[in-house]
Amino acid sequence: MTLKKKLIAAAFALSALASSLALAACPDHYVDGKAPEFRNQKLAVNTQELCYGVFGIMHSGVTRTPLWAAEHLTADNVEQARDLDRENSFHPEERLPRQHRAELSDYARSGFDRGHMAPNGDMPDRQSQRESFTLANMVPQDGDNNRHVWAGIEQAVRKLAKKEGDLYVITGPAFLGTDLRKIGNVLVPSHLYKVVYSPRQRAGGAYFVENQPDVQYVTMTVAELEQKIGINLLPSLTPQQKQTMLKLPTAKPRKR
């Protein structure tokens, strides 16, 4: 092997090592400490993991959104969050390079909400709440969708967390099809998903909804969702476990 080829091989090895270390940066937020893995390698371009107090994000510099936000959602956190009034503090993520991050100006007058992936309503204290308002945790979301059907899904998951004691939750956007649009420099997702895994029942399931007004969500197995979006969301589970469907609570849309 020539010196040039050896250097290239070493560079790839270092890149792979750095990637694996990044994926392990926030183990507390993931089932068995294992973060999702990309099956569609196009999604992995310009990604950076960001760790926060009660959630972790894999951010894409291509879409300028998270590709997922992961939480270990406990009943205690849900209970504490109930007593915390909302303080909006949307802000760009300073840890990201300017050329890869969303800015407030991207969303201004866009007609889209800044939709939380790790919800403000899950945050147990002021520090966590402020962290949840980073634009690295936001996607352009249809306003009607965000405030009604999606709000109902978030509330249903919180109720399930109180019942189960704790859940692992992974929330993210899906960019399906070729007819995608942008607001500023930020790509608008076609769909949104929320994966819920119960350690007590050793089963998971997913809500999946189009990013449109006045739509109905569907539920599916983790395996079905992974096939749709090209991400191995729960890598520590076997294929059979991913086919085992957790009975998800009915999510009632918030009233208009």
UniProtKB/TrEMBL annotation:
UniProt entry keywords in alphabetical sequence: Endonuclease, Hydrolase, Magnesium, Metal-binding, Nuclease, Signal
Catalytic site positions: H116
CDD domains: NUC
InterPro entries recorded: DNA/RNA_endonuclease_AS, DNA/RNA_non-sp_Endonuclease_sf, Endo_G_ENPP1-like_dom, ENPP1-3/EXOG-like_nuc-like, His-Me_finger_sf, Non-specific_endonuclease
Superkingdom: Bacteria
Similarity annotation: Belongs to the DNA/RNA non-specific endonuclease family.
Protein name: Endonuclease
Species for this entry: Pseudoduganella rivuli
